[in-house]
Specification:
single chain; alpha/beta; Rossmann fold; 15 strands
């Protein structure tokens, strides 16, 4: 009861001070800034690809940092872009946060090699890899806190997959100004569907983080997560909280074909109320009246696609803009990309994945196939 009273008293103070907006910030009141953030990590300076979503007005605004996962294949790291996470980041910007999507070292256009290696599958060191992720996030936060429009005492960190366990590792450091972290489908070492390298070592890493973490954390995993299944997610949670960490675990029903993608534009309807509830419990700002959900396009797929292709078409429609879908004129082959830096890049990438000479772009940004 004491904890409940403390939380509600803190929340009332925020309401009285006008920290919780009665309604969401309009999307057209949010500006997007792209920059290479110069961050110091391990005594060296790196330019990190960053996109900032800023509400209108002078601020200072609470800060939300959104950080990404890590593809199973190394070739996918450099193809990553901040645009992939714009719809998710908009959720926090519309709550009144200055929201930064940061690509860590070795991803997208960010400088530096990939520093998050975790060793061999039989002898992984997941704690070190996740701590490295946390250091990259902290390096970015140190720069962002210097902005006059940022309130450095109210910081939220949100991570998916490798970024999710990185957010948990960050909570273990209890850095000043960071009030809470959110872990969507966090983990490391997924080799293929349902297979994780030395999962006991991954559980041990969460236990280690729980020994020192005192920041409240929210963990969200879908039932059909093919990277980290419900049984494993519960083990993570039990190890972390058993060691002293503070974490609320929510295991949702299945999401789409792959629950690991819950933290996406299409998943907002599912996770929005969970995030609202957590922010209120921790005394961080959120809206009282949420905005309409992002529109999900409902456009029939082009003729000639296989069942697999039809599923990919739905994922394409659900993806962030700067996207394109290409299809062969004479075969079922197709290719698609979403969330690219430019439309031209999306078209070229979609054609590249289609891989046959008669492929052509048939849809851009969710247009009906031509």
């Amino acid at each position: 009861m004491r904890i409940i009273k403390t939380v509600f008293g803190f929340l009332s103070a925020f309401c009285l001070a006008g920290m919780i907006s009665p309604s969401a910030v309009f999307a057209d009141q949010i500006t997007k800034e792209r920059e290479m953030l110069s961050a110091t990590i391990d005594d060296d300076t790196y330019a990190l690809e960053t996109q900032i979503l800023r509400p209108s007005g002078p601020g200072p605004f609470p800060l939300a940092v959104v950080t990404h996962g890590s593809p199973r294949g190394s070739s996918g790291r450099r193809r990553m872009t901040t645009n992939t996470y714009v719809p998710q980041a908009m959720e926090f910007a519309q709550r009144g946060y200055l929201t930064a999507i940061v690509l860590r070292r070795g991803y997208g256009k960010s400088e530096g090699r990939w520093f998050e290696e975790y060793g061999e599958c039989d002898f992984p060191y997941y704690d070190k890899a996740a701590a490295t992720t946390a250091e990259d996030i902290l390096g970015a936060i140190a720069v962002l806190k210097k902005r006059p429009d940022v309130d450095g005492t109210r910081i939220l960190v949100v991570g998916k997959s490798a970024g999710g366990i990185g957010a948990v590792a960050l909570a273990a450091k209890n850095p000043p100004g960071i009030v809470a972290t959110i872990n969507f489908a966090g983990g490391r070492g997924s080799r293929s569907h349902g297979e994780v390298c030395s999962e006991g070592e991954l559980v041990d890493a969460y236990e280690k983080f729980g020994e020192t973490a005192r920041i409240p954390t929210l963990w969200v995993y879908a039932e059909n997560d093919g990277f980290f299944n419900p049984r494993l997610a519960r083990k993570f949670h039990e190890a972390f909280t058993g060691a002293g960490g503070s974490a609320e675990l929510i295991q949702t029903g299945p999401y789409g074909r792959e629950g690991h993608n819950l933290f996406s534009k299409g998943g907002i309807e599912r996770w929005r109320p969970m995030v609202d509830d957590f922010l209120r419990k921790t005394g961080l700002p959120t809206w009282e009246t949420p905005p309409p959900l992002p529109v999900t396009l409902n456009i029939a797929p082009p003729e000639g696609l296989s069942e697999r292709g039809k599923g990919r078409w739905l994922r394409y429609l659900d993806g962030p803009d700067n996207k394109a879908f290409a299809k062969s004129r004479s075969s079922p082959r197709f290719g698609w990309r979403t969330g690219r830096d430019t439309i031209e890049e999306a078209k070229a990438s979609a054609l590249g994945y289609c891989k046959v000479d008669d492929c052509e772009v048939i849809s851009v940004n969710g247009s009906a196939p031509n």
